[in-house]
TrEMBL record:
<keyword id="KW-0479">Metal-binding</keyword>
<dbReference type="InterPro" id="IPR006638">
    <property type="entry name" value="Elp3/MiaA/NifB-like_rSAM"/>
</dbReference>
<comment type="similarity">
    <text>Belongs to the anaerobic coproporphyrinogen-III oxidase family. HemW subfamily.</text>
</comment>
<keyword id="KW-0949">S-adenosyl-L-methionine</keyword>
<keyword id="KW-0349">Heme</keyword>
<dbReference type="Pfam" id="PF06969">
    <property type="entry name" value="HemN_C"/>
</dbReference>
<dbReference type="InterPro" id="IPR023404">
    <property type="entry name" value="rSAM_horseshoe"/>
</dbReference>
<dbReference type="InterPro" id="IPR004559">
    <property type="entry name" value="HemW-like"/>
</dbReference>
<feature type="domain" description="Radical SAM core">
    <location>
        <begin position="9"/>
        <end position="245"/>
    </location>
</feature>
<comment type="function">
    <text>Probably acts as a heme chaperone, transferring heme to an unknown acceptor. Binds one molecule of heme per monomer, possibly covalently. Binds 1 [4Fe-4S] cluster. The cluster is coordinated with 3 cysteines and an exchangeable S-adenosyl-L-methionine.</text>
</comment>
<keyword id="KW-0004">4Fe-4S</keyword>
<keyword id="KW-0963">Cytoplasm</keyword>
<dbReference type="InterPro" id="IPR007197">
    <property type="entry name" value="rSAM"/>
</dbReference>
<dbReference type="InterPro" id="IPR034505">
    <property type="entry name" value="Coproporphyrinogen-III_oxidase"/>
</dbReference>
<dbReference type="Pfam" id="PF04055">
    <property type="entry name" value="Radical_SAM"/>
</dbReference>
<keyword id="KW-0408">Iron</keyword>
<keyword id="KW-0411">Iron-sulfur</keyword>
Length: 389
């Protein structure tokens, strides 16, 4: 990547921190995240290592920021027991300052939730819980290799909402063998529960996963593309009719409950990150840590940096990325504002692509703001790809 003299995301503008906790009790067949299963013996070493890394993240900035959002994801942060979870959260609290209304999200697996853990999360400042529900249908959960059952997870959602109001759930659609009626039932159950936000994704088969090899052997099959699109449209209609704002291609929130952390990514703000495989974007550099948990631990234990890859992202590329993420917002993206932020003329750079996408009916343009059309919403990845150049 070509280096540029302009600083594209000064650390002063970074107000978000992502922490990756790699532990899971089992690796789900479709998962390609940086995860270790059955290695709880590494948890204490991980806590020591991430404490060191957080310290170095803080010391790397001249003016330590007041964070607006913290997202503790994984993996499964709630796989940590009460004391270890407390230690992790305290390590973050001790090393950063926060605005008064900072958003603190934690990803949680339904089977890890206990009253004790919920109170701990609340008492240590967690004010948003993102539950990996995926479905309420036991057959679909079993296909996805998730160990909770639909009945139990409904009760867990109610329990969480009583302690921490802001509950988000993840739902997967287009799982092998899933019908449109199955999906409608998942949607019906979701909105019968006290949730504020939903992220929903079609199942993807990623290279290197167990699902990928099972599909190669003919043991699992993709859903037909037409069914996948129908499921997506059914979800959009369902959530819209129940007061959820569709604000990003895959995300729906009740008014006032959009995920502020993800908005920071999508609006092109910088962010800090710590943990195996975590990617930070600060001062124009994208730094990605070692994906392997053991390599990550060994590096920090040896007093070395956990960063495996570092690249300077030029102002032009940063602007293109901001536009590509921004166009996934249902309200669209103001290309002139992005251009001004990065000091490049994005409208001129993307003139041909913008004209073609307008002709193809994928986007609309009002002054300098572009938005996906109804058709474009189905092709959001292609539109984003065009803007990336
Ligand atoms: S629980 Fe989530 S992070 Fe862990 S293996 Fe399953 S999909 Fe991956």
């Amino acid at each position: 990547m070509k280096a540029s003299s302009s600083i594209t995301t000064p650390s002063a503008s970074c107000r978000s921190l992502y922490i990756h906790v790699p532990f899971c009790r089992h690796r789900c067949g479709y998962c390609n995240f940086s995860v270790v299963a059955g290695r709880d013996d590494l948890i204490d070493r991980f806590l020591d290592a991430i404490t060191l890394e957080l310290q170095s993240v803080r010391s790397s900035t001249d003016r330590p920021p007041e964070l607006e959002t913290v997202f503790i994801g994984g993996g499964t942060p709630t796989h940590l027991d009460h004391d270890r979870l407390a230690r992790l959260l305290q390590a973050v609290r001790d090393r950063f300052d926060f605005v008064a209304d900072a958003e603190w999200s934690v990803e949680a697996n339904p089977e890890d939730i206990t009253t004790d853990k919920l109170r701990l999360l609340r008492d240590l400042g967690i004010n948003r819980v993102s539950l990996g529900v995926q479905s309420f249908n036991d057959q679909k959960l079993s296909t996805l290799e998730r160990s909770h059952d639909g009945q139990h997870v409904r009760q867990i959602i109610r329990d969480v909402a009583e302690v921490i109001e802001n509950v988000s759930i993840d739902l997967i659609f287009a799982a092998p063998g899933e019908t449109l009626d199955n999906w409608r039932e998942d949607l019906r159950l979701a909105t019968s529960l006290p949730i504020k936000h939903v992220s929903t994704y079609a199942l993807t088969f990623e290279k290197g996963t167990a699902f990928w090899s099972r599909r190669s052997k003919g043991d699992l099959h993709d859903s037909p593309e037409e069914l996948e699109l129908q499921m997506y449209d059914v979800a959009r209609e369902h959530f819209a009719a129940r007061g959820f704002e569709h604000y990003e291609i895959s995300n729906f929130g009740k008014p006032g409950f959009r995920c502020r952390h993800n908005l920071a990514y999508w609006h092109g703000a910088g962010w800090y990150a710590a943990g195996p495989g975590a990617a930070a974007f600060v001062d124009g550099y994208r730094n990605v840590n070692h994906r392997s948990t053991t390599s990550y631990l060994k590096r920090l234990e040896a007093g070395q940096s956990p960063i495996a890859e570092s690249e300077f992202v030029s102002a032009e590329q940063s602007a293109r990325e901001a536009a590509a993420f921004g166009v996934r917002m249902i309200d669209g993206v103001d290309l002139q504002a992005v251009s001004e932020r990065y000091g490049v003329d994005l409208l001129a750079l993307c003139e041909t692509e913008l004209r073609q996408m307008l002709e193809q009916g994928l986007i609309t343009r009002q002054a300098d703001r572009i938005c996906l059309t109804e058709r474009g919403i189905h092709f959001a990845d292609s539109v984003a790809g065009e803007l990336l150049g």
